[in-house]
Design a protein that fits this description.
Elements (H helix, E strand, L loop, with lengths): L14 H7 L2 H4 L3 H17 L5 H19 L12 H13 L12 H37 L4 E6 L2 E7 H25 L2 E2 L15 H7 L4 E2 L3 H6 L2 H27 L7 E2 L18 H24 L14 H24 L1 E2 L1 H8 L6 H12 L3 H18 L8 H7 L7 H5 L1 H7 L8 H20 L1
Parallel strand pairs: 3-4
Antiparallel strand pairs: 1-2, 5-6
The structure holds arginine (ARG).
Amino acid sequence: MAKLASGRVTEKSSELLDKFNASLLFDKKLYAEDIEGSVAHATMLAKQGILTNEELEDIRKGLAQIKEEIESDRFTFDIADEDIHMAIEKRLTEIIGDTGKKLHTARSRNDQVALDFRLYVQKNTRKIQNRLLKLEAVLLNIAKAHIDTLLPGMTHLQHAQPINFAYHMLAYMSMFKRDIERLESAYERNNFSPIGCAALAGTPYNIDRQQTSNALGFEAPTINCLDTVSDRDFALDILYNIAVIMTHISRLAEELIIWSSSEFNFITLSDAYSTSSSIMPQKKNPDVPELLRGKTGRVYGNLIALLTVLKGLPLAYNKDMQEDKEGVFDSVETALISIEILTAALDTMQVNKEAMEKACKTGHLSATDLADYLVSKCGMPFRDAYKLTGAIVVEAQKMEVDLSEMPFEILKAMAPCIEEDVLEYLDLRHSMNARNSQGGTSTASTQAQIEQFEKWLLEYAAV
Ligand code: ARG
Protein backbone atom coordinates (compact mmCIF):
# COMPACT_ATOMS: atom_id res chain seq x y z
CA MET A 1 0.00 0.00 0.00
CA ALA A 2 1.25 3.52 -0.79
CA LYS A 3 1.89 5.34 2.45
CA LEU A 4 1.66 9.02 3.31
CA ALA A 5 4.61 8.59 5.64
CA SER A 6 7.03 6.20 3.99
CA GLY A 7 10.35 7.43 5.27
CA ARG A 8 12.83 4.77 6.31
CA VAL A 9 10.51 1.96 5.26
CA THR A 10 10.35 2.16 1.50
CA GLU A 11 9.01 -1.19 0.43
CA LYS A 12 5.28 -1.65 0.32
CA SER A 13 3.92 -3.18 3.46
CA SER A 14 2.12 -6.49 3.30
CA GLU A 15 -1.63 -6.51 3.62
CA LEU A 16 -1.22 -8.72 6.63
CA LEU A 17 0.92 -6.08 8.32
CA ASP A 18 -1.60 -3.37 7.45
CA LYS A 19 -4.33 -5.40 9.07
CA PHE A 20 -2.27 -6.21 12.14
CA ASN A 21 -0.78 -2.75 12.57
CA ALA A 22 -3.87 -0.64 12.05
CA SER A 23 -5.89 0.99 14.79
CA LEU A 24 -8.05 2.88 12.31
CA LEU A 25 -11.11 0.69 12.65
CA PHE A 26 -11.43 1.59 16.31
CA ASP A 27 -9.59 4.88 16.68
CA LYS A 28 -11.74 6.53 14.01
CA LYS A 29 -13.94 7.22 17.01
CA LEU A 30 -11.41 9.95 17.84
CA TYR A 31 -11.93 11.88 14.59
CA ALA A 32 -13.56 14.91 16.23
CA GLU A 33 -10.85 15.18 18.89
CA ASP A 34 -8.19 14.76 16.22
CA ILE A 35 -9.61 17.60 14.14
CA GLU A 36 -10.09 19.80 17.21
CA GLY A 37 -6.46 19.22 18.17
CA SER A 38 -5.21 19.88 14.64
CA VAL A 39 -7.11 23.17 14.40
CA ALA A 40 -5.62 24.30 17.73
CA HIS A 41 -2.15 23.22 16.66
CA ALA A 42 -2.35 24.92 13.25
CA THR A 43 -3.74 28.11 14.80
CA MET A 44 -0.79 28.20 17.18
CA LEU A 45 1.67 27.53 14.33
CA ALA A 46 0.24 30.50 12.41
CA LYS A 47 0.39 32.78 15.42
CA GLN A 48 4.04 31.82 15.88
CA GLY A 49 4.78 32.57 12.22
CA ILE A 50 5.47 28.91 11.41
CA LEU A 51 2.47 28.79 9.03
CA THR A 52 1.03 31.72 7.06
CA ASN A 53 -2.53 32.84 7.71
CA GLU A 54 -3.56 31.62 4.24
CA GLU A 55 -2.13 28.20 5.01
CA LEU A 56 -4.03 28.15 8.28
CA GLU A 57 -7.25 29.06 6.46
CA ASP A 58 -6.75 26.24 3.95
CA ILE A 59 -6.06 23.77 6.74
CA ARG A 60 -9.13 24.86 8.65
CA LYS A 61 -11.39 24.58 5.63
CA GLY A 62 -9.95 21.22 4.68
CA LEU A 63 -10.42 19.86 8.21
CA ALA A 64 -14.00 21.17 8.33
CA GLN A 65 -14.73 19.38 5.08
CA ILE A 66 -13.22 16.15 6.40
CA LYS A 67 -15.36 16.39 9.52
CA GLU A 68 -18.41 16.71 7.33
CA GLU A 69 -17.38 13.82 5.15
CA ILE A 70 -16.91 11.58 8.18
CA GLU A 71 -20.18 12.63 9.75
CA SER A 72 -22.15 12.05 6.59
CA ASP A 73 -20.49 8.68 5.97
CA ARG A 74 -18.72 9.86 2.83
CA PHE A 75 -15.18 9.39 4.13
CA THR A 76 -13.29 6.35 2.84
CA PHE A 77 -11.43 4.61 5.64
CA ASP A 78 -8.45 2.63 4.39
CA ILE A 79 -6.62 0.55 6.98
CA ALA A 80 -3.40 1.04 5.04
CA ASP A 81 -3.46 4.54 6.58
CA GLU A 82 -2.97 2.82 9.94
CA ASP A 83 -4.84 5.24 12.15
CA ILE A 84 -7.23 8.16 12.23
CA HIS A 85 -4.36 10.65 12.48
CA MET A 86 -2.78 9.51 9.22
CA ALA A 87 -6.15 9.04 7.51
CA ILE A 88 -7.16 12.63 8.19
CA GLU A 89 -3.77 14.03 7.24
CA LYS A 90 -3.76 12.10 3.98
CA ARG A 91 -7.24 13.30 3.08
CA LEU A 92 -6.29 16.87 4.00
CA THR A 93 -3.38 16.72 1.58
CA GLU A 94 -5.69 15.37 -1.12
CA ILE A 95 -8.09 18.27 -0.57
CA ILE A 96 -5.74 21.24 -0.06
CA GLY A 97 -2.50 19.98 -1.63
CA ASP A 98 0.98 20.50 -0.21
CA THR A 99 -0.13 22.82 2.60
CA GLY A 100 -1.72 19.75 4.17
CA LYS A 101 1.74 18.31 4.59
CA LYS A 102 2.73 21.26 6.80
CA LEU A 103 0.20 20.46 9.54
CA HIS A 104 2.46 17.90 11.14
CA THR A 105 5.22 20.49 11.76
CA ALA A 106 6.31 20.48 15.42
CA ARG A 107 4.21 17.52 16.41
CA SER A 108 4.30 13.74 16.27
CA ARG A 109 1.61 11.12 16.35
CA ASN A 110 2.85 10.39 19.84
CA ASP A 111 1.66 13.70 21.28
CA GLN A 112 -1.27 13.73 18.86
CA VAL A 113 -2.67 10.42 20.07
CA ALA A 114 -1.99 11.38 23.69
CA LEU A 115 -4.00 14.54 23.09
CA ASP A 116 -6.91 12.96 21.21
CA PHE A 117 -7.31 10.16 23.69
CA ARG A 118 -7.09 12.48 26.66
CA LEU A 119 -9.71 14.80 25.14
CA TYR A 120 -11.98 11.78 24.66
CA VAL A 121 -11.50 10.68 28.27
CA GLN A 122 -12.13 14.18 29.62
CA LYS A 123 -15.32 14.61 27.56
CA ASN A 124 -16.63 11.23 28.59
CA THR A 125 -15.77 11.81 32.22
CA ARG A 126 -18.21 14.72 32.09
CA LYS A 127 -20.83 12.60 30.28
CA ILE A 128 -20.64 9.85 32.88
CA GLN A 129 -20.88 12.40 35.67
CA ASN A 130 -24.01 13.86 34.09
CA ARG A 131 -25.64 10.46 33.76
CA LEU A 132 -24.80 9.69 37.38
CA LEU A 133 -26.39 12.98 38.43
CA LYS A 134 -29.64 11.92 36.72
CA LEU A 135 -29.46 8.58 38.51
CA GLU A 136 -28.99 10.44 41.79
CA ALA A 137 -32.07 12.55 41.11
CA VAL A 138 -34.17 9.41 40.60
CA LEU A 139 -32.80 7.77 43.76
CA LEU A 140 -33.58 10.93 45.69
CA ASN A 141 -37.17 10.94 44.41
CA ILE A 142 -37.66 7.33 45.45
CA ALA A 143 -36.17 8.13 48.84
CA LYS A 144 -38.52 11.07 49.34
CA ALA A 145 -41.53 8.85 48.71
CA HIS A 146 -40.42 6.09 51.10
CA ILE A 147 -39.21 7.71 54.26
CA ASP A 148 -41.78 5.74 56.24
CA THR A 149 -41.66 2.47 54.27
CA LEU A 150 -40.31 -0.24 56.56
CA LEU A 151 -37.78 -2.68 55.16
CA PRO A 152 -35.82 -5.43 56.88
CA GLY A 153 -32.26 -4.16 57.09
CA MET A 154 -29.90 -7.08 56.57
CA THR A 155 -26.43 -8.27 57.37
CA HIS A 156 -25.26 -11.61 55.93
CA LEU A 157 -28.50 -11.44 53.92
CA GLN A 158 -30.31 -12.24 57.17
CA HIS A 159 -32.92 -10.00 58.76
CA ALA A 160 -31.11 -7.69 61.18
CA GLN A 161 -32.92 -4.47 62.14
CA PRO A 162 -35.83 -2.56 60.65
CA ILE A 163 -34.83 0.35 58.45
CA ASN A 164 -36.78 2.40 55.94
CA PHE A 165 -36.56 2.09 52.17
CA ALA A 166 -35.45 5.69 51.73
CA TYR A 167 -32.47 5.00 53.96
CA HIS A 168 -31.54 2.05 51.77
CA MET A 169 -31.73 4.16 48.60
CA LEU A 170 -29.61 6.85 50.23
CA ALA A 171 -26.86 4.28 50.83
CA TYR A 172 -26.64 3.93 47.04
CA MET A 173 -26.80 7.69 46.63
CA SER A 174 -23.73 7.88 48.85
CA MET A 175 -21.84 5.45 46.60
CA PHE A 176 -22.71 7.27 43.39
CA LYS A 177 -21.88 10.61 45.00
CA ARG A 178 -18.38 9.33 45.70
CA ASP A 179 -18.21 8.10 42.09
CA ILE A 180 -19.08 11.54 40.75
CA GLU A 181 -16.46 13.09 43.01
CA ARG A 182 -13.85 10.49 42.07
CA LEU A 183 -14.44 11.31 38.39
CA GLU A 184 -14.09 14.99 39.23
CA SER A 185 -10.73 14.52 40.85
CA ALA A 186 -9.52 12.46 37.88
CA TYR A 187 -10.73 15.18 35.54
CA GLU A 188 -8.73 17.79 37.41
CA ARG A 189 -5.65 15.63 37.76
CA ASN A 190 -5.52 14.91 34.03
CA ASN A 191 -6.54 18.28 32.71
CA PHE A 192 -3.13 19.10 31.19
CA SER A 193 -2.27 19.47 27.54
CA PRO A 194 0.06 16.96 25.82
CA ILE A 195 0.24 18.71 22.44
CA GLY A 196 3.60 20.18 21.47
CA CYS A 197 5.53 17.40 23.16
CA ALA A 198 6.25 15.97 19.72
CA ALA A 199 7.85 12.51 19.59
CA LEU A 200 9.37 12.48 23.09
CA ALA A 201 11.82 15.35 23.54
CA GLY A 202 9.98 18.50 22.55
CA THR A 203 10.71 20.40 19.35
CA PRO A 204 13.18 22.96 18.04
CA TYR A 205 10.32 25.08 16.63
CA ASN A 206 9.28 28.17 18.55
CA ILE A 207 5.88 26.79 19.59
CA ASP A 208 3.53 28.10 22.30
CA ARG A 209 2.09 25.22 24.28
CA GLN A 210 0.23 27.56 26.59
CA GLN A 211 -1.82 28.75 23.64
CA THR A 212 -2.88 25.30 22.47
CA SER A 213 -3.58 24.33 26.05
CA ASN A 214 -5.90 27.33 26.48
CA ALA A 215 -7.61 26.74 23.14
CA LEU A 216 -8.36 23.13 24.05
CA GLY A 217 -9.67 23.95 27.54
CA PHE A 218 -6.82 22.43 29.56
CA GLU A 219 -5.51 23.99 32.72
CA ALA A 220 -1.87 24.13 31.52
CA PRO A 221 0.60 22.24 29.35
CA THR A 222 2.08 19.08 30.94
CA ILE A 223 5.47 19.55 32.60
CA ASN A 224 7.65 16.78 31.13
CA CYS A 225 7.27 15.61 27.53
CA LEU A 226 8.97 12.25 27.97
CA ASP A 227 6.32 11.37 30.55
CA THR A 228 3.52 12.94 28.53
CA VAL A 229 3.88 10.73 25.46
CA SER A 230 4.12 7.58 27.54
CA ASP A 231 1.53 8.45 30.18
CA ARG A 232 -1.78 6.61 30.11
CA ASP A 233 -2.69 7.21 33.74
CA PHE A 234 -5.71 9.21 32.59
CA ALA A 235 -6.96 6.07 30.82
CA LEU A 236 -6.30 3.92 33.89
CA ASP A 237 -8.13 6.48 36.01
CA ILE A 238 -11.30 6.31 33.97
CA LEU A 239 -11.10 2.51 33.76
CA TYR A 240 -10.77 2.25 37.52
CA ASN A 241 -13.49 4.81 38.12
CA ILE A 242 -15.85 2.91 35.85
CA ALA A 243 -14.90 -0.37 37.55
CA VAL A 244 -15.96 1.13 40.89
CA ILE A 245 -19.16 2.56 39.41
CA MET A 246 -20.04 -0.85 37.98
CA THR A 247 -19.27 -2.46 41.33
CA HIS A 248 -21.86 -0.19 42.91
CA ILE A 249 -24.30 -0.76 40.08
CA SER A 250 -23.90 -4.53 40.34
CA ARG A 251 -24.61 -4.47 44.07
CA LEU A 252 -27.82 -2.58 43.48
CA ALA A 253 -28.60 -4.86 40.52
CA GLU A 254 -28.20 -7.89 42.76
CA GLU A 255 -30.67 -6.43 45.24
CA LEU A 256 -33.15 -5.67 42.46
CA ILE A 257 -32.88 -9.28 41.30
CA ILE A 258 -33.45 -10.65 44.79
CA TRP A 259 -36.21 -8.18 45.58
CA SER A 260 -38.12 -8.98 42.42
CA SER A 261 -38.11 -12.74 43.10
CA SER A 262 -41.42 -14.14 44.33
CA GLU A 263 -39.79 -15.04 47.66
CA PHE A 264 -39.24 -11.36 48.36
CA ASN A 265 -41.60 -9.50 46.05
CA PHE A 266 -40.35 -6.17 47.46
CA ILE A 267 -40.35 -4.54 44.03
CA THR A 268 -41.89 -5.11 40.63
CA LEU A 269 -39.81 -4.05 37.66
CA SER A 270 -41.89 -2.43 34.96
CA ASP A 271 -42.72 -4.52 31.91
CA ALA A 272 -40.79 -2.05 29.76
CA TYR A 273 -37.60 -3.16 31.52
CA SER A 274 -38.30 -6.87 31.91
CA THR A 275 -38.20 -9.76 29.49
CA SER A 276 -40.07 -13.00 29.12
CA SER A 277 -38.90 -16.56 28.84
CA SER A 278 -39.02 -18.25 25.44
CA ILE A 279 -40.61 -21.36 26.93
CA MET A 280 -42.17 -20.57 30.32
CA PRO A 281 -45.10 -18.25 29.66
CA GLN A 282 -45.55 -17.25 33.30
CA LYS A 283 -42.05 -15.79 33.61
CA LYS A 284 -40.94 -12.22 33.87
CA ASN A 285 -37.18 -12.03 34.07
CA PRO A 286 -35.00 -9.28 35.50
CA ASP A 287 -32.62 -9.24 32.51
CA VAL A 288 -31.71 -5.59 33.02
CA PRO A 289 -30.18 -5.95 36.48
CA GLU A 290 -28.69 -9.30 35.49
CA LEU A 291 -26.94 -7.73 32.51
CA LEU A 292 -25.77 -4.86 34.68
CA ARG A 293 -24.27 -7.36 37.10
CA GLY A 294 -22.73 -9.32 34.22
CA LYS A 295 -21.26 -6.33 32.40
CA THR A 296 -19.24 -5.50 35.47
CA GLY A 297 -16.94 -8.37 34.51
CA ARG A 298 -15.82 -6.92 31.18
CA VAL A 299 -15.20 -3.55 32.75
CA TYR A 300 -12.88 -5.12 35.35
CA GLY A 301 -11.18 -6.96 32.49
CA ASN A 302 -10.51 -3.72 30.62
CA LEU A 303 -8.77 -2.24 33.67
CA ILE A 304 -6.58 -5.27 34.22
CA ALA A 305 -5.79 -5.44 30.49
CA LEU A 306 -4.44 -1.90 30.32
CA LEU A 307 -2.49 -2.24 33.56
CA THR A 308 -0.88 -5.31 32.04
CA VAL A 309 -0.11 -3.59 28.72
CA LEU A 310 1.63 -0.72 30.49
CA LYS A 311 3.54 -2.80 32.99
CA GLY A 312 7.26 -2.81 32.29
CA LEU A 313 7.13 -0.56 29.19
CA PRO A 314 10.31 1.45 28.76
CA LEU A 315 9.95 5.17 28.07
CA ALA A 316 8.59 6.63 25.94
CA TYR A 317 5.95 5.63 23.34
CA ASN A 318 5.81 1.95 22.40
CA LYS A 319 3.37 0.45 19.95
CA ASP A 320 1.98 -1.71 22.74
CA MET A 321 0.17 1.45 23.78
CA GLN A 322 -2.10 1.27 20.75
CA GLU A 323 -3.85 -1.45 22.78
CA ASP A 324 -5.02 1.26 25.21
CA LYS A 325 -8.11 2.41 23.36
CA GLU A 326 -10.61 -0.38 22.76
CA GLY A 327 -10.95 -1.25 26.43
CA VAL A 328 -11.52 2.37 27.36
CA PHE A 329 -14.10 2.85 24.61
CA ASP A 330 -15.84 -0.32 25.74
CA SER A 331 -15.85 0.64 29.41
CA VAL A 332 -17.09 4.16 28.67
CA GLU A 333 -19.91 2.91 26.45
CA THR A 334 -20.80 0.19 28.93
CA ALA A 335 -20.92 2.70 31.78
CA LEU A 336 -23.03 5.21 29.85
CA ILE A 337 -25.71 2.74 28.81
CA SER A 338 -25.64 0.93 32.15
CA ILE A 339 -26.27 4.09 34.14
CA GLU A 340 -28.97 5.17 31.74
CA ILE A 341 -30.90 1.92 31.86
CA LEU A 342 -30.51 1.55 35.61
CA THR A 343 -31.96 5.05 36.01
CA ALA A 344 -34.94 4.16 33.83
CA ALA A 345 -35.53 0.81 35.56
CA LEU A 346 -35.50 2.47 39.00
CA ASP A 347 -37.69 5.30 37.83
CA THR A 348 -40.38 2.90 36.62
CA MET A 349 -40.23 0.16 39.24
CA GLN A 350 -43.04 -0.38 41.68
CA VAL A 351 -42.16 -0.52 45.37
CA ASN A 352 -44.29 -3.07 47.22
CA LYS A 353 -44.55 -1.41 50.61
CA GLU A 354 -46.83 -4.03 52.15
CA ALA A 355 -44.51 -6.89 51.26
CA MET A 356 -41.54 -5.05 52.73
CA GLU A 357 -43.39 -4.29 55.93
CA LYS A 358 -44.71 -7.84 56.18
CA ALA A 359 -41.17 -9.18 55.81
CA CYS A 360 -40.15 -7.06 58.79
CA LYS A 361 -42.42 -9.25 60.90
CA THR A 362 -40.26 -12.26 60.42
CA GLY A 363 -36.81 -12.61 61.90
CA HIS A 364 -37.45 -10.86 65.24
CA LEU A 365 -36.03 -7.57 64.01
CA SER A 366 -36.64 -5.81 67.30
CA ALA A 367 -34.48 -8.21 69.33
CA THR A 368 -31.76 -5.59 69.77
CA ASP A 369 -34.43 -3.19 71.02
CA LEU A 370 -35.52 -5.71 73.67
CA ALA A 371 -31.94 -6.15 74.80
CA ASP A 372 -31.52 -2.35 74.95
CA TYR A 373 -34.76 -2.15 76.95
CA LEU A 374 -33.46 -4.69 79.48
CA VAL A 375 -30.27 -2.64 79.79
CA SER A 376 -31.89 0.76 80.20
CA LYS A 377 -35.11 -0.15 82.10
CA CYS A 378 -33.93 -3.11 84.16
CA GLY A 379 -30.31 -2.10 84.64
CA MET A 380 -29.06 -5.42 83.27
CA PRO A 381 -25.50 -5.70 81.93
CA PHE A 382 -25.68 -5.86 78.11
CA ARG A 383 -24.33 -9.43 77.86
CA ASP A 384 -26.99 -10.71 80.28
CA ALA A 385 -29.70 -8.78 78.44
CA TYR A 386 -28.40 -10.26 75.16
CA LYS A 387 -28.64 -13.79 76.58
CA LEU A 388 -32.10 -13.34 78.03
CA THR A 389 -33.34 -11.81 74.76
CA GLY A 390 -31.93 -14.84 72.94
CA ALA A 391 -33.99 -17.10 75.18
CA ILE A 392 -37.11 -15.04 74.54
CA VAL A 393 -36.49 -15.24 70.78
CA VAL A 394 -36.22 -19.04 71.01
CA GLU A 395 -39.56 -19.04 72.84
CA ALA A 396 -41.09 -16.81 70.13
CA GLN A 397 -39.83 -19.23 67.50
CA LYS A 398 -41.45 -22.13 69.33
CA MET A 399 -44.71 -20.19 69.52
CA GLU A 400 -44.34 -19.21 65.85
CA VAL A 401 -44.84 -15.51 66.50
CA ASP A 402 -42.55 -12.61 65.77
CA LEU A 403 -40.96 -10.91 68.75
CA SER A 404 -42.80 -7.71 67.82
CA GLU A 405 -46.08 -9.56 68.36
CA MET A 406 -45.18 -11.58 71.46
CA PRO A 407 -47.92 -11.53 74.15
CA PHE A 408 -46.96 -9.32 77.10
CA GLU A 409 -47.63 -12.00 79.76
CA ILE A 410 -45.05 -14.33 78.24
CA LEU A 411 -42.46 -11.59 78.15
CA LYS A 412 -43.23 -10.65 81.75
CA ALA A 413 -42.95 -14.29 82.86
CA MET A 414 -39.52 -14.60 81.30
CA ALA A 415 -38.24 -11.19 82.44
CA PRO A 416 -40.20 -9.92 85.46
CA CYS A 417 -38.68 -6.42 85.30
CA ILE A 418 -40.47 -5.81 81.99
CA GLU A 419 -43.39 -3.34 82.02
CA GLU A 420 -46.20 -2.72 79.50
CA ASP A 421 -44.15 -0.04 77.77
CA VAL A 422 -41.98 -2.83 76.31
CA LEU A 423 -44.56 -3.33 73.56
CA GLU A 424 -43.82 0.13 72.26
CA TYR A 425 -40.12 -0.75 72.14
CA LEU A 426 -40.81 -3.92 70.23
CA ASP A 427 -42.89 -2.08 67.64
CA LEU A 428 -40.99 -2.14 64.35
CA ARG A 429 -41.53 1.50 63.44
CA HIS A 430 -40.49 2.52 66.93
CA SER A 431 -37.40 0.39 66.53
CA MET A 432 -36.55 2.10 63.24
CA ASN A 433 -37.11 5.54 64.71
CA ALA A 434 -35.09 4.73 67.81
CA ARG A 435 -31.94 4.73 65.68
CA ASN A 436 -31.85 8.46 65.56
CA SER A 437 -28.09 8.98 65.74
CA GLN A 438 -26.48 11.00 62.96
CA GLY A 439 -26.51 8.95 59.75
CA GLY A 440 -28.92 6.45 61.32
CA THR A 441 -32.19 5.12 59.93
CA SER A 442 -34.82 7.04 61.94
CA THR A 443 -37.25 9.04 59.85
CA ALA A 444 -35.82 12.29 61.22
CA SER A 445 -32.26 11.25 60.47
CA THR A 446 -33.23 9.98 57.02
CA GLN A 447 -34.94 13.30 56.35
CA ALA A 448 -31.77 15.16 57.34
CA GLN A 449 -29.76 12.97 54.95
CA ILE A 450 -32.23 13.67 52.15
CA GLU A 451 -31.71 17.38 52.74
CA GLN A 452 -27.94 16.98 52.62
CA PHE A 453 -28.10 15.10 49.32
CA GLU A 454 -30.56 17.58 47.89
CA LYS A 455 -28.26 20.47 48.74
CA TRP A 456 -25.26 18.68 47.27
CA LEU A 457 -27.16 17.89 44.04
CA LEU A 458 -28.21 21.52 43.64
CA GLU A 459 -24.69 22.76 44.26
CA TYR A 460 -23.21 20.20 41.92
CA ALA A 461 -25.64 20.95 39.11
CA ALA A 462 -24.86 24.67 39.48
CA VAL A 463 -21.11 24.21 38.89
N1 ARG B 1 -2.03 4.39 16.17
C1 ARG B 1 -1.11 4.77 17.19
C2 ARG B 1 -1.73 4.52 18.57
O1 ARG B 1 -2.90 4.46 18.65
C3 ARG B 1 -0.77 6.23 17.08
C4 ARG B 1 0.59 6.58 17.57
C5 ARG B 1 1.60 5.99 16.68
N2 ARG B 1 2.90 6.46 16.96
C6 ARG B 1 3.96 5.84 16.48
N3 ARG B 1 5.11 6.31 16.79
N4 ARG B 1 3.83 4.80 15.69
O2 ARG B 1 -1.04 4.39 19.56
